[in-house]
Structures are given as C-alpha cells and as structure tokens.
Amino acid sequence: MGLVLGKITVETPKYELIHACPDYEIRKYAPSVVAEVTYSPSALGGDRDGGFRILADYIGALGAPRNAKPEKIAMTAPVVTKTSAAAEKIAMTAPVITSGGGGGGGEAVTMQFILPAKYRAAAEAPRPLDERVVVREEAERKYAVARFSGVATEKVVAEKVESLKKSLERDGYKITGEFLLARYNPPWTLPPLRTNEVMIPVE
C-alpha cells in the first residue's frame, strides 16, 4: 500500500544540502556506484523507459539476478534518466538516468540505478551478465534540484527544466551540463503522490 501512496521506503543517495530556496535546492552528492544502460528508444519499440527491465534483471528485482555471483541487489530510489542527442543510431550493445527522447530519431537515453551504499567501488558490485549494463563510479557532484509531483511527461519535465534554468540564471549559478530526471516511485503510485526531481549540474 505504501508504494501506491508514494511512501519511499528504499535507500536513497546521500547528499549535503548547500542552499535551499522556495523553488529549488543546491545539493552536493556523495560518490556512488551506478549501473546504467544507454539505448535508442526506437530500438525498443519507442519505449523511453525500456532500459528499466534490463537494469531490473541485473539486480534481480523481477526474478533471478543476471549477474556473475549471482547476487540480489536491493532496489534504491530514484531511477535517474538523462536525455542526449545522438548523431547516429546507438546500438543496444552500449550502457535509473535516461538520456534520449521519445520514440523517434536521433536521441539516446541513459537510464541509471544508483547501487546501495555498501558498494563503495565498481569492482565490489557483481559483474553484469548482460553486456549492455555498465557498472561505474560517480564522483562527488553538485546539482540544482527542483521537486514536483504527478506524471513526469516530456512536456512537464521540459517546463520544470526551463523554470529551474531561469531561477539559476537569476541567482547567478553556472550550469555545467545537461539535466537529469529522477523518479522515486513505481508507475502504479497514484500520480499526485509521486515524487520526481529535475536535476541540473552546477559549479
């Protein structure tokens, strides 16, 4: 019932709150280990979230884990996605963050699961059996973060990102990269009770 009502009971990444204002926060995230997959949505029937099953299979969220130990890895939140333009079609042999857009054309999606904090280095995490899954380390990083509820459609996310960029420009922050979308709840959570965030890296 907690999942339907939006209660977040799984591990979430640790961060230091640097600054808070009514429309966003500045956070410094601790180093972490992530599992990610990069794909072209068009190669998965236009499904922007097609990487979820691949990563869920790796950690064993939906059955036997597809890793070399094999070892079940606890699910964490959020699932992070990042969108980026791609000059050419990306093969499914490349890596939750999603990069890439809708079902069409020249965009790529990177979806990322943040692994539990007990994995302090990539070498400590089980080796994926699926070559599309890449396990790597992320260094300490700083993001401007704006939280919102509801369904994170492309239109809504674009509006939230634009609003956050304007706020950062107003307050003199320098943006250093592309935005990420973080989603904390499964799709069956009631939309008004979902927790989503847009995250923009800043100096």
TrEMBL record:
InterPro entries xref list: Reg_factor_effector_dom_sf, SOUL_heme-bd
Protein name as catalogued: Heme-binding-like protein At3g10130, chloroplastic
Family to which this protein belongs: Belongs to the HEBP family.
Top-level lineage group: Eukaryota
PANTHER family: HEME-BINDING PROTEIN-RELATED (PTHR11220), SOUL HEME-BINDING FAMILY PROTEIN (PTHR11220:SF58)
Pfam families with a match to the protein in the record: SOUL
Signal peptide as annotated in the record: none
